[in-house]
Amino acid sequence: GAVVSQHPSWVICKSGTSVKIECRSLDFQATTMFWYRQFPKQSLMLMATSNEGSKATYEQGVEKDKFLINHASLTLSTLTVTSAHPEDSSFYICSARLGQGPEKLFFGSGTQLSVL
Amino acid sequence: AQSVSQHNHHVILSEAASLELGCNYSYGGTVNLFWYVQYPGQHLQLLLKYFSGDPLVKGIKGFEAEFIKSKFSFNLRKPSVQWSDTAEYFCAVTPNTGGFKTIFGAGTRLFVKA
Lengths: 116, 114
Known about the structure:
Shape of chain A: globular
Mean pLDDT of chain A: 90
Order of helices and strands of chain A: EEEEEEEEEEE
Low-confidence stretches of chain A: none
Order of helices and strands of chain B: EEEEEEEEEEEE
Structural class of chain B: mainly beta
Distance between the termini of chain B: 41 Å
Largest interface: A-B, 22 and 25 residues
Oligomer: heterodimer
Mean pLDDT of chain B: 91
Distance between the termini of chain A: 37 Å
Low-confidence stretches of chain B: none
């Protein structure tokens, strides 16, 4: 099956620093990738849709200047949490879509971010 | 706003017990429905899906789900669980409006006692 690699799997950083999370589709090209965030006992919340070669589309309430998304190639999307604060601590997960349909969604293993 | 509600955060069962995990969604239009599973230490993976046709769909590992349109529900079932079914299960909905943005429930953690 298609594989999506997400790195790092966990990261601890100081408040005010920036953290970059990578999402790679290893054996397929993904024109669309998605970034989600999950708080304990809550849903996976869609943050943004990342389209290769164009600006990401952010969901309502997500600060685009804080969560920078870059989808520079068909196999790589990055999420940068800028000037991280403790309230940004969360589980971030990416997914990549194979093809155009809604069903072929493959997930990374997630990144646990802890901001001190 | 569209949402997906899963009824239980945690479920504990003994092996061979029957399983039913509830899922309800709020969206008035046509939807695609999914159940994903995440085994400990692994990625989320698709368990089964419903697009159209027979509302009772069968997935991998003996799981099935039934779409009841009038109840906006898509409950997951398995007649006899095994210890290896211990995992977190996510119900998800993709409104058929283009863009195919998937909305997830909060997940249900299932622990099966051997």
